[in-house]
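Example 3.2
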Amino acid sequence: MGARPFARETLHVLSGVASRVDPSTHPLLGLRDDRAAGARSLLVVITADKGLCGSFNTNIIKQAVSFIAERPGQEVAVALVGRKGRDFFRRRGVEPCYERVNLFARLGYADAEAIAGVAIREFAEGRVASANLVYNEFKSVLRQRVVVEALLPIPRLDLGVLDPAARVDYLYEPSPERILDDLLPRHVEIQVYRALLESVAAEHAARMIAMDNATKNATDMVDQLTLYMNKLRQAAITREIIEVVSGAGAP
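Structure, written as tokens:
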């Protein structure tokens, strides 16, 4: 996953920048209490377009439902990526602020730009107090982990716990406003793109394991049925031999 180290380093650098500048410098740095009464949050739910991948989609949907349930009395807007999540919330009458299906076959950076653009617009215009991602993170072929990740506002480092040598300010050239205007939207796009790539890798791994388990279960079932049929055939042959012997021995 080449996107993972790049995205993590981008997050680390911009978190440090966000911690050292005035939050009013850029709309994406604004601090808002998403737990306050009446606050509205955005949740980007990334599921697969297809099934046959074990509990991959179920775990994401459960986490999304739990996220919403933990905010009683608050509105949570959902942006749905993937057919399975879209169908689940549609059956329950939830109207998403954005939906997209059939993008994983030809996933590109432009798809991440479109999804990130929704989060950026909703947050910058003050319609949501926070934006979060929920997706499956690829850990290994045998393991995926459901992640709820803060997307906006940009996470900030706690400078008080940093080593004194690391508590340095940055010199900006050109102005901080111009740099942040370029970097912060790009950062959000990169984080969304990484989440999409993680989800694709985790989906393929989950489907491979699910199909492998299905093949093993089918093989076991064939073996059991074969043994059962052989026992029935043997019992029938034995019964016929007994009948023949009994008939031959009759007076």
